[in-house]
Amino acid sequence: MIGALEGNTVVDITQGLCGPYASLLLAEAGAEVIKVEPLGGDYAREFGPPFVGGASATFQALNRNKRCIALDIQNPRGAETLRRLVERSNVFLEDLGPGVAEGLGLGYAGMERSNPGLVYASITAFGDKGPFRDLPGSELVVQAMSEFWGSLGAIDEQPERLGADVANMNTAVFAFNSVLAAVYHRELTAQGQRVSVSMYGTLMHMRGILWSARHDPDDWSGQHQEGALQPRDHGYQASDLSVYFSLRRGDEEAYVRFLTDLGMTEVLGDPRFDNGGRDAVGRGRYASELKPVWEEAFKNRSAAEVVDLVKRYDGDAVELNDYQGLMAHPQVEALGIVREPANANGLRSLEPSWKISGLDPVQATPPPRLGEHTSEILTEVNHSEQEIQQLRDTGVVL
Amino acid sequence: MPGPLTGIKIVDLCHAVVGPWGTMLLGSLGAEVIKVESPGGGDLIHGMPPKQRGLGVVYTHSNPNKRGIILDLKKEEGREVCYKLVEDADMLVENMRPGVADRLGLSYEKASEINPRITYISAPAWGSTGPMAPMGGVDVSVQAFSGWTSLSGEDGGRPEIFRFGAQLDISTSSYIVAGALQALLIRNRTGKGMRLDVTMLGSSMNVQLSRMAEFFATGRSPSPLGSATVTTAPHQAFLCQDKKWLAVGVVNDSQWRGLCQALGLSDMTEDPRFATNPRRVENRRELVPILERVFLTKPSTWWSIRLAKERVPQGPFLDFEGLRHHAQALENDHIVEMDIPHQGNMLFGGLPWRFERTPARLTSGPYPGQHTQEVVEEANARQATRGPAPRGQAS
């Protein structure tokens, strides 16, 4: 069985993390992706160190399974070439910023006339309206404006960012989903459309529970309202790593045995530890104040021992892994999610997060060199050898 | 106006956030979603604080665009109603622990026997096999296990848990949507449903792909950097004269030139130590103090104006009071107020996408079991018209 987007061609002029991850997902779903880069290259080619074989690790992770044409779309001849490419494609992905594509003659209205089934997907930093509309954004900037700092760090100190690139990566998945839905609509109606997502919209959506929580609540307590005032949470420190655990499934008898094993029987009778310990750990109401009591009991035990102990009494526990710890864990192997390199010089990567029964996996091809496929792509859209040479000579393509 | 998924029917057997958020998003595209809860408490997050008029807001925010019914799947009658829904549905979504749906008589095999066109979506936390499969998982434990916490924290400090326990839930929901939409496209060609598995662990790893790349390249785990960014610089918070922090993100060389211009440091564009992003990243410990000193000389508003003119990404660290009235959030519907008949007005995160021909929708969800009667009557009426299902002869 072949992928959902088999037979679809995507023309992707985005750079950085977000758009390229969206087109990677489109490639994973079976689409053929043509990556259009400016003559100086996608600026993410410069992200890093780390670099491997001279290429940014970040760039490599997001750009396999694509062919690349280096094309100056600011040049009218380049814009014309891009229009010819998009005319014969099914999906166009852009992140130039609101109104910029129109200024280059690459707006939806014009593209739709020559290709009514086209799905035209725009990714912006801040959306199509508002005072920030025309301003550039970045991962940190968008996190800052959607109050991510309020769930990390300590108030009155330097704010922290979430280390994962949540604005870029989640926006990419939403862009991918929008394209899939629009392609589905087109398959039923032959009608294309423009879809758009923004990094700010993504994070504001994902924090939505917090807006609900603070609008008109019956009470004011807990993380959804007081997150910014709470101390940093490092989990529970054991002798080596930290752990996170909860006891919600344990029965009372198991709980007493658990406390006995930990040498903690003196807490029995303290009402904060009642109720099978449910209020005393994790998100429980006494969890923060009781953390030192648990850590005292864990200090001579490794994280692995604590995890085993909790599980023995039917609780859930995990270690706070770094990537080394994660990759070495048998659960990751059972999941089969790490993808071996496509070639001898390649890097490991990940299988997609969805597993569809009966679907043939997409074979990985290495990330393209800048302009690696310029000639073959131009030939496919009926450029003669002479035309291609002329574009090269005039500095329109590389 | 119809959405792209108008006519698609989904039976949602999910609880908490991961599954429900995914079906809410599919509902925003026009799918008709029926949320099935069990009697005696139902979805465990009804009671989770914070509440508005006695019902947890996490429940309310996770379940718009649906009708809600209560069915006892442990009883024959409840199961029969569920089978009728399955017969008529395009998708079934469940996020029970591995094996639980099977015990309730709602396995993939059973569902596809009733309805070969159905796509059966499972979303366990850790996977359906492997040593952790039987274990429960919530956002925080997935944060901890998946390496996510190791990326955040003070510069060089200990790994830090993100004190909002739905971020990875919703990333997983979004990958569920991705799988579900692909399943529909594939069914257009094959006419058959399929099985779709999306785990929280796999989703959490994928959403970290841009950071995991660093590990794949070096074999070393990245460490937290406070507000700064490992692979681009300067990309961090700067303290200004008015004691406010400003988020600044330089990710390419033209933004670097803009920053130098805005700060009155145009000589620095010539400095080879900072000429390219890799050089700025390598020399960030020399670069940042120079910039810090300049930012401290003027208030954040001034730098914001200057940086915007030079097209350098910048923005304030907004708090709730700042963002709830912010024109950027309001004009784009990134934050919306909705009337929930049983709870009053409530703020919601806006939908994450805009479709120009097939607008997405956000409508109030049910109170638990609000639509039990009408959904059961519809299912019975459908069966009366169609006669007994093939499954009746088979079982």
Walk me through what this model shows.
The complex is a heterodimer of chains A (398) and B (395). With 398 residues, chain A is an alpha/beta fold. Chain A is 38% helix and 13% strand. The longest helix of chain A is centred in the middle third of the chain and has 24 residues, at 166-189. The radius of gyration of chain A is 26 Å and the shape is elongated. With 395 residues, chain B is α/β, with parallel strands linked by helices. Helices cover 40% and strands 15% of the residues of chain B. Chain B has a six-stranded parallel beta sheet, with helices on both faces. The radius of gyration of chain B is 25 Å and the shape is elongated. At the A-B interface, strand 3, helix 2, helix 6, helix 7 and strand 8 of A face strand 3, helix 2, helix 6, helix 7 and strand 8 of B. Strand 8 (193-198) of chain A pairs antiparallel with strand 14 of chain B, so a sheet runs across the interface.
What attributes characterize this protein structure?
heterodimer, A: 398 residues, 6-stranded parallel sheet, 3-stranded antiparallel sheet, 17 helices, B: 395 residues, alpha/beta, elongated, disordered C terminus
Radius of gyration over C-alpha positions of chain B, nearest whole angstrom: 25 Å
Q: How far is it from the N-terminal to the C-terminal residue of chain B, by CA?
A: 41 Å
The description of the largest β-sheet of chain A is:
6 strands, parallel
Low-confidence stretches of chain B: 390-395
Rounded average pLDDT of chain A? 95
The percent range for helix content of chain B is 40-55%
Percent of residues of chain B in beta strands?
Answer: 5-15%
Task: Please tally the helical runs of chain B, counting DSSP H or I stretches of 4 or more residues.
Answer: 17
Oligomer: heterodimer
Please state the overall shape of chain B, judged from the principal axes of the Cα atoms: elongated
Quick one: overall form of chain A?
elongated
Low-confidence blocks of residues of chain A: none
State the largest interface.
A-B, 156 and 160 residues
DSSP E strands of chain B, number: 14
Number of helices of chain A: 17
Strand content of chain A: 5-15%
The beta-strand count of chain A equals 14
